[in-house]
Amino acid sequence: MIEINIDLFTTLTRYYPKGSGSLKVEKGTTAGGLIHKLGIPDGSVSLIFINGKRALPDQALVGNDKVGLFPLVAGG
């Protein structure tokens, strides 16, 4: 198991893990796997950042990573 830190933005905040913004996940978990584990519906995340850098869903997480997830945003 590894521990990661999670920041969820706007409409995704309802999926925060209970108790804090940190979570233990299995070693080898990907960003996409994390999204699934948090129960976030498919297609709800438009941007993934890991340690401040843009990432893809297949990027594996390592201990102490800081993951930011952003939803689709509409405006005008």
What's the helix and strand layout?
Layout: E1 2-8, E2 22-25, H1 31-37, E3 45-50, E4 53-55, E5 66-71
Parallel strand pairs: 1-5
Antiparallel strand pairs: 1-2, 3-4, 3-5
Describe the structure.
The protein is mainly beta and 76 residues long. It has a single domain (2-71), classed as Beta-grasp domain (Ubiquitin-like (UB roll)), CATH 3.10.20. Helices cover 9% and strands 34% of the residues. It has one helix at 31-37; strands at 2-8, 22-25, 45-50, 53-55, 66-71. Strands 2-1-5-3-4 form a 5-stranded mixed sheet, covered by helices on one side. The chain is globular, with a radius of gyration of 12 Å. Pfam families: ThiS. This is MoaD/ThiS family protein. It comes from Desulfobacter hydrogenophilus.
Contiguous low-pLDDT stretches (5 residues minimum) are: none
Biggest beta sheet summary: 5 strands, mixed
Query: What is the molecular shape?
Result: globular
End-to-end Cα distance: 43 Å
Supply the number of helical segments: 1
**Rg, Å, rounded:** 12 Å
Task: List SSEs in N-to-C order.
Answer: EEHEEE
Strand order of the largest sheet: 2-1-5-3-4
Portion in beta strands? 25-35%
Structural class: mainly beta
Question: What's the architecture, going by CATH?
Answer: Roll
**Helix content bin:** under 10%
Find the count of extended strands (DSSP E, 2+ residues). 5
pLDDT averaged residue by residue: 91
Oligomer: single chain
Task: Tell me the CATH topology.
Answer: Ubiquitin-like (UB roll)
Report the top-level CATH class. Alpha Beta
CATH superfamily: Beta-grasp domain
Protein name: MoaD/ThiS family protein
Pfam families: ThiS
